[in-house]
Amino acid sequence: AETYEILVIDDSSTDETPEIIASFAPRVRCHRLEKNSGRLIARQTGAGLAGCDDLVFCDCRVIFEPDVLEKVLAHPKRPLMFGSDFPEEYFRTLYGRFLFCLHRRLWKPYFPQEWYGEELEITRDNFDKVPKGMGVFATDRDFYLRHQPDLNDRFVNDDTLIFARMVREKPIIRYCGMRCHYIARTVWRTIPLHMHFRGIRFNSFYLRPRHRFFWLYLAMWAVMLTTVALAVTGVIPWWVIPAAIGAGLVGASALLAEGLVNFLAVLVVLPPVA
């Protein structure tokens, strides 16, 4: 007898998602939210409605191998995070190259994981140095629900905070023994908005006091405000501001990139993203 179910949480979609899901009934069950509530609420709703205690979350942009359930059941540890950081998936677009370079700088030497190992234990000690994501994530229902953020709305999606709370209790296993394909955005007009909200979610953890980038964030604002103040008071000419911005973009691109091709890709993508 089958001992699994597939539950889709429709976050108030406006396309043909309900009809597509209905075509897979009764094997696939669907629950539609009354309004667009964000991924955090969608996951919490799914965890509460699931008929099983052993859960596998899958982001709507992720495609994984057909034997994912067998591999999850075969792995003895929870929570289990499936890695999907294979370089060839990033190099398809300029935006993908930018993300690869950014991740390499943020998470080196732990990114991409496939370059050095199949399994990585995420603990409190290495937490800030390791890439993390909810693309495909296996966990126990109660364990997941009791580590949720205090705020719940459409614009709260602090996966990093959830993971930080989890590793206080036990390690998270990041496993690259199964390939996942993330369907990245390719429409340029949607990328800046996506990066804006992605940045807010990133900021909600790492830019807090005592976290990894708090002082860097303050220093950036201090430099910008000081430069503007000096220009307003006439201490420096106004042309220094665009010159400094241009130099900053070139310097940041050189810092992020590894090789000339990646440097050019980052230099093109960074201005609209920034």
UniProtKB/TrEMBL annotation:
Signal peptide as annotated in the record: none
Pfam families: Glycos_transf_2 (PF00535)
Glycosyltransferase 2-like domain mapped to chain residues: 2-75
Keywords linked to the UniProt accession: Membrane, Transmembrane, Transmembrane helix
Tagged with keyword Disulfide bond: no
Transmembrane parts of this sequence: 214-239, 245-270
Keyword Membrane belongs to the record: yes
Designated name of the protein: Glycosyltransferase 2-like domain-containing protein
